[in-house]
Design a protein that fits this description.
This protein has a seven-stranded mixed beta sheet. It has a six-stranded parallel beta sheet with strand order 2-1-3-4-6-5, sandwiched between helices. It contains ten helices and 13 strands. Helix 1 packs across helix 10. Helix 3 links the parallel strand 3 and strand 4. With 312 residues, it is α/β, with parallel strands linked by helices.
Length: 312
Amino acid sequence: MKPKIFIDGEHGTTGLQIRARLAERSDLEVLSIPEADRRDKDIRADFLKSADLAILCLPDDASREAVGILEGNNSTRIIDTSTAHRVHPDWAYGFAEMDGSQRARIAKARLVANPGCYPTGAIALVRPLVAAGLLPSDYPVTVNAISGYTGGGKQLVAQMEDEARPDHIGAPHFLYGLTLTHKHIPEMQLYGLLERRPIFSPSVGRFAQGMLVQVPLHLADLKGARSLGDIHAALAAHYEGQDIVQVVPLADSAKLARLDPTELNDTDLLKLYVFGTEGQGQVNLVAVLDNLGKGASGAAVQNMDLMLGLKH
């Protein structure tokens, strides 16, 4: 019997991407609420309870409500793409490549919290260095990032694309999260193995998909890492054998004059770069990913396959 999958919130940007991916699959049965019944809470509850696995593509409060509906029902497994449960100790964090045991942890979990797009890049860069003893856990980490506007959901997409809207955004690029209280910071700190709260400065560009996440470091403040090669070696060792996370060779990075945030659009890949000049004492670590790929929908489908024992 095919596993039954219900996408709660399939009409949002993340849900639509997941729905499109699953439409091509013959090994799953995707449950979908008829358009006329979408706002019927009882019908929604029935769909949640009848699924083998529910993927929640909802705002935080709505995700908590859905989890509440399934309280006491241990037959429906859950992947939550919101921020509601990402640092909850009862939920497995859905970043399979985070360390050697995470894939197995996701596979056996009933509750999986899909990572945020920005934290996926930041954690991928920081955690291996802390785990290797190179980056002190109390280092004053800063994370600077830019995302395509689909990361803000349907409302931001409309604001960026519809010039007739009174709240239209015409800027080619804008900074936000100015109070340094972005909701992705707790998971960056927890899964980045950081004692100090990182400073996170996010921004949005006038492109639909794609993302760059930067973490600049001073080599003199690290432990035992005095070259770009030391940093690169630690990242390469951590992700050895992985096909989704790729650590770009130093020689290839050195040839680049610019980096395109849309480089990995429509893929589920995550590329990590180490930039700098030897002897200068500084390094800039950069992650590139599609905010709707490994940063959202792609990660959710990957986690679904792990939980169901499927390989794609």
